[in-house]
TrEMBL record:
Pfam family, one: Proton_antipo_M
Species annotation: Duganella violaceipulchra
Root EC class: translocase
Gene that this sequence comes from: nuoN
Documented EC number(s): 7.1.1.-
Protein name in UniProt: NADH-quinone oxidoreductase subunit N
MF GO annotations: NADH dehydrogenase (quinone) (non-electrogenic) activity; NADH dehydrogenase (ubiquinone) activity; quinone binding
Domain NADH:quinone oxidoreductase/Mrp antiporter transmembrane, first and last residues per copy: 136-437
Reaction(s) catalysed (UniProt annotation): a quinone + NADH + 5 H(+)(in) = a quinol + NAD(+) + 4 H(+)(out)
Stored PANTHER family: NADH DEHYDROGENASE
Length: 501
């Protein structure tokens, strides 16, 4: 007679947002099959409604401020995950609003399965949510793969466009290589510790009974996989080519919300799981950060394609995120300083995502059927064509450059303060110097918009929802720069409650 297996009670409440998104996405997929091409607005509205429902559920959990594990500790709902999910919904929602007309003009919403753009975007969001809440190497990896497979398909969604097809092939091949790095690193750590649970890995590593060589070997592959997802040097090869080759709507899905999810797994794996090895991964992140700042900013100067320029800008911006993460290593002796550094990195990631989404939104605003506004020359004289959106783009570029009083200045200041607090003055000086270099190529675009004569005189036609969202995006960047306190406090609270649990 066999002994029955013990029954495990699984609490479904912490995964209510994920369940709502999965059910909503499947329903949208089915409904869309019965819609004609002219009814894609229904799919669009249902997608935004689904994100809104998920936001309400995550906000309720964030306000509660509790930490709950489920699925045998593989999934966690805590303040950090819920706050990051809220900004993930916001990023994806804005992306869908900005992309609607652009995708329609390029036939991405036509055919029997024209709603696949929205469905794949929602499935990618589900993968990001699993990444953010993963407390086990297995669940984190499943989230990474769900997000990646959805994004591979999105990059190749314009099957008749050779640039998009080439970008999809590059992204798929290099993405598979990065996933291999990540999985190999996880397998090494599993072999050394005998567990996939992140908390148990931390306990096993802290015990000091495992041969350090095996741990460091696994850590190197783990950091390499994370660096690829962030687009940090020297794992940045895919970023400019994929950003340029993808439809701008898909580029936005690649460069926005996924960075939030990648930041979350950096905290989960490096801080929660491998903090006893902080000295090792701090040195790795230091090299990655300095190289990203240098190559990202210097190479961006030579770009004439704005999408490639913003791609190299992304590489440089991720250098600042890595600076915040490595500054948190002070947490081995000063938990308050560590929480401040990690929250600065979180704030910087959110700032980057909100600003980048707006920047690519303006690119899609200026694009139209048969014309892609992606060269610097396309922005000449924008102030004479539409002064308001020229002002919005200027705010976004000033924020990316770190010019006060924009949100980007507060983000850079908080990260640099955290790095300076660790006593690494040279690293702070290097970051400031490369930021000054980076300011050149941002301000060059501002100069073109306000002082050059326009080369394109076609009227700019904007739908009401996009006009409202893009205007709100620009105003929010300015407002959060003038009053950064509440969001910084929310990030600090989320990090503190999460790491002290």
């Amino acid at each position: 007679m066999t002994t029955p297996l013990p029954q495990t009670v699984i609490d479904m409440v912490p995964v209510s947002a994920e369940i709502a998104l999965l059910v909503g996405t499947c329903a949208i997929l089915l409904i869309d099959m019965f819609l004609s091409q002219g009814k894609r607005s229904v799919t669009y509205a249902l997608s935004l409604l689904t994100l809104l429902v998920c936001a309400a559920l995550s906000y309720h959990d964030f306000v509660a401020g509790t930490t709950v594990y489920t699925f045998n500790g593989m999934f966690v709902s805590d303040p950090m995950s819920n706050l990051l999910k809220l900004f993930t919904y916001l990023a994806v929602g804005l992306t869908l609003v900005y992309s609607r007309q652009y995708a329609d003009d390029r036939g991405m919403l036509s055919g029997n399965l024209g709603g696949e753009f929205y469905v794949l975007a929602l499935f990618a969001t589900l993968g990001q949510m699993v990444m953010i809440s993963g407390s086990n190497f297995l669940s984190v990896y499943l989230g990474v793969e769900l997000m990646s497979l959805s994004l591979y398909a999105l990059v190749a969604i314009r099957r008749d466009n050779h640039k998009a097809t080439e970008a999809a092939m590059k992204y798929f091949i290099l993405g598979a290589l990065a996933s291999g790095f990540l999985l190999y690193g996880i397998s090494m750590l599993y072999g050394a510790t005998g567990t996939l649970d992140i908390a148990h890995v931390a306990t096993a590593v802290a015990a000091g009974t495992i041969k350090p060589t095996i741990l460091v070997f696994g850590l190197v592959f783990l950091v390499a996989g994370l660096a690829f997802k962030l687009g940090a040097v020297p794992f940045h090869m895919w970023v400019p080519d994929v950003y340029e080759g993808s439809p701008t709507a898909v580029t936005l899905l690649l460069g926005g919300a996924p960075k939030i999810a990648t930041f979350a797994i950096c905290i989960r794996l490096l801080v929660e799981g491998l903090l006893p090895m902080a000295v090792d991964w701090q040195q790795m992140l230091m090299v990655l950060a300095v190289m990203s700042l240098a190559i990202g900013n210097l190479t961006a100067i030579a770009q004439t394609n704005l999408k490639r320029m913003l791609a190299y800008s992304t590489i440089a911006q991720m250098g600042f995120v890595l600076l915040g993460l490595l500054a948190g290593v002070a947490g081995t002796t000063d938990r308050t300083g560590a929480a401040a550094a990690y929250s600065a990195a979180m704030y910087y990631t959110i700032t980057y995502v909100l600003t980048t989404i707006g920047s690519f939104g303006v690119l899609m605003l200026l694009s139209r059927a048969g014309f892609e506004a992606e060269n610097l020359a396309d922005f000449k004289g924008l102030s004479k064509r539409n002064g308001w959106f020229a002002a919005v783009m200027s705010i976004l570029l000033f924020s990316l450059a770190g010019v006060p009083p924009m949100m980007g200045f507060a983000a850079k200041f908080s990260v640099l303060t955290a790095v300076l607090g660790t006593g690494q003055i040279w690293l702070t000086v290097v970051a400031v110097m490369f930021s000054l270099i980076g300011a050149f190529y941002y301000l060059r675009v501002v100069k073109m918009m306000w002082f050059d004569e326009p080369t394109d005189t076609a009227p700019i036609v904007v739908k009401g929802d996009m006009s409202f969202a893009l205007s709100l995006n620009g105003v929010a960047i300015l407002a959060l720069g003038l009053l950064p306190g509440p969001l910084l406090a929310a990030c600090l609270k989320a990090i503190t409650l999460t790491l002290n649990t």
